[in-house]
């Protein structure tokens, strides 16, 4: 799916199953923070 969406990326979180945001909180938060920082300056 990531290949079909421009600007997307695929991330595998070791140890995560169906609740990645709960099972890998620090990693998910870091990824979300990075995404928001990367896209915060884009024109809307």
Task: Explain what you see.
This protein is an all-alpha fold. The chain has a domain of 30 residues. The protein has two helices and no strands. The longest helix is centred in the C-terminal third of the chain and has 15 residues. The relative contact order is 0.12.
Overall morphology: flat
Number of helices: 2
Question: How many E-type strands?
Answer: 0
Strand content: under 5%
Give a quick precis of the structure.
This is TAP-like protein. The chain has a domain at 15-44. Helix content is 43%, strand content 0%.
Write the layout of secondary structure elements.
Elements: H1 20-23, H2 25-39
Question: Main traits of this protein?
Answer:
43% helix; mainly alpha; single chain; 44 residues; 0% strand
